[in-house]
Design a protein that fits this description.
The chain is mostly helical and 133 residues long. It is built from 2 helices and no strands. Helix 1 runs antiparallel to helix 2. The protein starts with a helix and ends in a 12-residue tail after the last helix.
Length: 133
C-alpha cells in the first residue's frame, strides 16, 4: 500500500512539474511577443514623431509663404504689385497652391496622430496598453 501511495505521489509531482514547465514556456513566449509588439509600437511612435516634426517645419514654411504672398499679419500690401493684375493672379495661384499643401500637411498630421492613438490604446491579451510597463 505504501508503494502505491508513493507511486501516486511521484505521478502527481511529475504532472505538476510538466504543467509548471509548460506555463513557464508560455510566459517566455508571451514575453517575446510583448517585446516584439513594444518594439513595433516604439517604431510607429518614432515614425510619427519624425513625421510630426517634418510637418511642423513644412507648416511653418507654408505659413511664412502665405504671409509673404499676402502681406504681413497686419495686412500691409506687397508694394509694387497692387496695380499689376498679372502679379495678383500669380500670387493668388501661389496662395491656392500653398493652401492646398497646408491642407495636405494637416491631413497627414491627423493621420499620423491616429496611428499613435491606435498604438497607445492597443493592449496585449486584454491586459491594457503595451507602453508604460
Amino acid at each position: 500500500m505504501l508503494h502505491a501511495a508513493a507511486s501516486n505521489q511521484d505521478s502527481h509531482n511529475l504532472a505538476f512539474a510538466e504543467r509548471v514547465a509548460a506555463l513557464e514556456a508560455e510566459v517566455k513566449e508571451l514575453d517575446v511577443q510583448l517585446t516584439e509588439q513594444e518594439e513595433s509600437a516604439n517604431a510607429a511612435i518614432t515614425q510619427w514623431q519624425e513625421s510630426f516634426t517634418a510637418l511642423e517645419e513644412q507648416n511653418t514654411e507654408l505659413v511664412q509663404a502665405l504671409e509673404t504672398a499676402g502681406g504681413s499679419k497686419e495686412g500691409n500690401p506687397i508694394s509694387g504689385h497692387e496695380s499689376s493684375q498679372e502679379s495678383i493672379a500669380a500670387l493668388n495661384a501661389d496662395l491656392e497652391t500653398t493652401k492646398a499643401a497646408l491642407a495636405e500637411a494637416e491631413a497627414k498630421l491627423a493621420e499620423d496622430d491616429q496611428v499613435v492613438v491606435k498604438w497607445e490604446g492597443k493592449g496585449v491579451l486584454g491586459y491594457g496598453p503595451i507602453l508604460g510597463r
